[in-house]
Each structure stands twice: as C-alpha cells, then as structure tokens.
Amino acid sequence: MTEVSVREIFKSYGKVEALRGVSFEAERGELFGIIGPDGAGKSTLFRILTTLLVADSGSATVAGHDVVKEYNAIRACVGYMPGRFSLYQDLTVEENMEFFASVFGTTVEENYDLVADIYRQIEPFKKRKAGKLSGGMKQKLALSCAMIHRPRVLFLDEPTTGVDPVSRKEFWQMLGRLKEEGITIVVSTPYMDEASLCDRIALIMEGRFIGIDTPRGIVAQYGAPLYAVRADRRGGLLNDLRGMEELEACYAFGNEVHITAKQESAETERRVAEALAAKGYGDVEVRRIEPTVEDCFMKLSRR
Amino acid sequence: MTLRYLLEKEFKQFFRNPFLPKLVLAFPVLIMLVIPWIMTMDIKNIGVTVVNHDSGGAAERLIRKIETSEYFILNGVEHDYEEALTALEYAKTDAIVEIPADFDRRLTTEGSAPVQVSINAVNDMKGALGANYLGALCNEFSRETLGGAVGQGGAAAAPKIEIVTQNRYNPYLDYKMFMIPALMVIVLLLLGGFLPALNIVGEKEKGTIEQINITPVSKFTFIFAKLIPYWVMGLLVLSVCMLLAWLVYGLAPQGNVGIIYLFSVLFILAVSGFGLIVSNYSDTMQQAMFVMFFFMLIFMLMSGLLTPLRSMPDWAQYMTVINPPRYYIEMMRMVYLKGGMLADLQTQLWALVAIDAVLGTWAVLSYRKRE
After folding, report:
1. pTM metric for this prediction
2. Å between A24 CA and nearest CA of chain B
3. pLDDT score at B161
4. Residue B267's domain spans which residues?
5. Domain shared by A85 and A209, yes or no
6. What are the Cα distances from residue B136, in Å, to B27, B71, B143, B162, B163?
7. Domain range for residue A243?
C-alpha cells in the first residue's frame, strides 16, 4: 500500500529552482531516506508534502489525500518535525506535549504508548522549559510532539543535524521501532552513514533525484572497482592522482583519497603505489574497498 | 475547545516573557503620571521687555501690571528700542512693549494712547497667544485707568462691548483635562497595536508557526486566540489609566463608564486586528516594527488628538473617516468631559463596528497556513 506518492514535483523560488521534477513512492511502514547535501531541495520537498507550501507543478498524495485539495485531511494524519527546532521554547516539556496533543484534538495519555520509549527519556525533565534542553533532548521532544496525535506518516527533516553521535544512534533506533508500529517515515539527512539505516533511499542533488533504491542496491550499482589511497603526505596527493591517465575519479574521503580506475585491472593497486612512490610519497597504501553510499553519491553526482 | 488551549498557551507565554508584563504595567503608569504635565499648550512665562520713553505714573502702573501677570516675566525696562530688539533677536526676551513719551499725557487728555507690541512669532502659537494676552492686559489696564478718570478730560464715553467668556466642560481651560482622555487612547493604541504586530511575526522568526500551520487548527481560531489576550490586557490597562486619572488629577468621566468600556472593546479589536494584519504580511520583526511606526504616526496625527480635525484640509478630513482612533478619541472626550450618552455617539459606534468587521476579516484572511 502506497502511503506517499510524489509525481514530477517542480518548485522554484524566483529564479532559484529548488525542485526540478522529483518523483518517488513510499510504502506503508517504510523508512524512506532522502539523502543529499544542504540546499539540495530536501526541506522544500518536505514543506510541500506537509501542505505548508504549494508546488509549481506536479502532484503528490500523502496517506491517500492530495496535498493541495485535501490539505486538511493530511494535516490531521501527518507528523512533521522541521529541520529547525520549532517548539515553544518558553513552554515546558510537558506543556509542549499537552499543547500539541490538544491542538490535534487528543491527549497525551491516549497515545502515551506510542511515544513512551522516547518520551520516557526526557520525562525526568518535564518541568524544564524546552529552550533549556540539550540538542539531543530537544530532538526527542520534537519527535514526541510530532507523534503525539498518532500520525500515519511522519516527516522528519534532518532530525539528527547538530546532534551528538550517541544521540543520533539512539534516534535511529527509535525510528526503527516506530516503523514496526506501521508508521511510514520519510526522513532526510545530510549524513551518508545514516542512509544504510533506511529501507530505501533517494539521493537528491540540486533539486533532482539522482538515484532511488535500497542502500544495498545503490551500492551494488557502483560497478567500478574502488580503492582507498593513503600516504605520508596529503598535500598534493589529490592533484598528483588526478594527473594519472588510467584513473577515472579521485576525491578526498576523510584523510584518504578514493579512486576508481577506468578499466578493471589487477595491476591498478600496484601501479598507483609505484607512481606515488616515484613522486616521493612514503608509506603509500592502496587497497581495494567496498563502496559506501557516499561513494555512490559522489559518483552519481558527477554525471 | 482548541481555543482554550491556544489561549492558555498565549497567556503562559506572555507572563513568562521577562519584559512584556512589566512593560504593560509600567507604560500606562508612566504615561499617565508624566505626560499630562509635559503636553501642555498653555502659554505661560512669556518674556517681556518694556521700552519706556515716559516717566509718568500711568506707564509705571502698566509696567507693574505686566510684571504681576502670571503669563509674563518682566525681563527689564529699557530706554532704547534698539537694545530691546537685540535682546529679542538673541531670544533673550519674547516680546517688546514700547510706551511712547507722551503716553501719560495723551491718556489723561485724549483718553487713549498707543502702545507698540513687537513679538517673536517663530512659534506662531506662542506669538499669537502672547499678543492676545498683552492686548487683553492693555484693555484691562485702560478700563481701570479710564474708569477712574471718567468725566475728567474730553474722553467720550464710547459705547463698548465687553465679552464675557464662559468655558463649558473645562471651566478652567486646563489643558490636562483635554489631554488625559487622549493619552489613554495613545496607550491603548501603542500597546494594542504593537504587541500583536510583533506576535505572529515572532512565531515566524522562531519557526513555531510551522508547527501550528500543520495542525488542523482553523485560521479563525488561531487569530481569535491571538486577539483575546490583547483585549484583556487593553481593558486592564485602560482601568489602570482611568484610576490614575481619578486619583492623581481628580478627573472622572462625566458620562457612563460602561460606554467607555464598550468602545474600548471595539477600539482594541480594531488596533489589534490591524497589528495582526501587519504581522501576517511581515517576514521579520524589524519589518513589522517599521510598518507599524509609519501607520501609528498617521493614526495619531490624523485622529484629532493634537490638532482639531476641522482645521485639516477636506481631503485629510475624508481620510480620517477610516481612522479608528478618531472615533475613539471623540468618544473619550465626549464622555469624559461632556458626559455624552450612547445616543450621542451612534456615528462613532457604528463606524468602529464597521472598521472592526473589515479589519477582523482581513486579519483572518491574511493569515496563511501555506505559501
């Protein structure tokens, strides 16, 4: 059963084209990730799907309702967590929960079981003002508030941006549990490592999807052999590698450089190592690696 | 039901604000205690320099009379007009009264004598009033002098008309009595206009409006929940002002207090509705603030608060038809000073109702839950 269906959505702000023909479908109970850098159009897409913004063209349905014509029906059954913390900072944790429950015509008690896992972690601070919470706790509260009316579809716009690694991990575990409740979750993130935690992902760049598949499927599409290169000097390494004829792509990846060869060859590792040694690099290490989603993103975005 | 929760939230936010509750309390108190003393158009303490060319007793009596008047300060008696003029040019004095050499003689023989008054009219109000006061003082002087000398010279007993003015509704022409009701209007206009103007745009800046926009809360409920707190606050502030006016200045409404409250409810709705409209169209607080300043200035200057509407050009008078403070100020002065009844205020009442209907609808419609 399709919960979210998006067809050829276009949206521009004046001359800036934020979305240039985006389409995807998410099934009921699916954790769908939209992965892409800042400014790729993720938030615009979310705002269209949550009925806050009207697209220039294209159509979309959420939980079976058209986002333009039946926006009222959608508002009652989706939860939205904007990228920026937007709960009332001058109300306490408890008051925010009660407020959002009541404007959706429900109570905290009624849906406590749904948010219990998350809310229990911030409940000790329920008398504290939302503005005084730490980043991770703010996100947990925002998620709790977005879910307090038991939405069918949950839209989370960069929920882990600016959150520490431990809280990020916890957060994704919570999403996994919500999925089991049958809630469809559409989540965006600029972190490639979070992509593998989704059921399916769409890679977005400059307003276009450059690939939609399962994380495994995206990685499997990579094709070309990938190597990680490391040497004692990093300065100039990238440029020297770029100067080599037989390599197709070179890009910095952490403190290594990832390269792909134009042709599959058992010799590539050795030849690159020798060429670098000849240029005076020491401790040269070239090894074959499995591509990650980020490698796929780099490759797809080059097209 | 939802309205109740929205209201609860608005009030909690208001009282938790470290600054707003204090402002709302201090602002009316300060305005009511300080401004009535400052905003006075009574002209007093006009500096007068007398150039006296006569040494007779009449001239001396006239100078004494100027000196003892509460409107004038005698800056000195010169014998040279040029010197006095220099003082006027350097703004050391406001007016020159020149008494001619044969003043005493002509007064006693001919029954009349000229006195020249030169006055600094840069401030035309002060100039005109000063000249008037001096004229009145001279009239009084001649009446006293000639009255004592009737039948002496050839002074013909010319028939004269004496004007006796009775100041209705403000018998002592106390400018404070005129200004205090108007100040209450200013307080309500500023608080009731600016606070709502900053409210919605504030939610926009903090991002909280997005969370509200995706809820099923209706536009009407949302706007209504924003208006009610300003109603409560406005009526409270008005009560504080009225209490202070009575305690400090002894000014109590001549008419029915109920009328004042009825109009206040309508007036606050108009200005708060206007504030919310500005807020809906603004993207930042700064923008909302400047737009409000612009309109508040127009509202105030075109309301008859400081200058009478009747002396404005026709086109300006037509414009004031849609200016809510105009009607409210008329009502305030009428009820406070003249004891006006509701029957006398039908125009003002229905004008405000009409303005409310337009602004209220506009406020709801201009709030957009999606772009």
Report:
1. 0.81
2. 22
3. 67
4. 2-39+175-366
5. yes
6. 41, 11, 11, 11, 11
7. 223-302
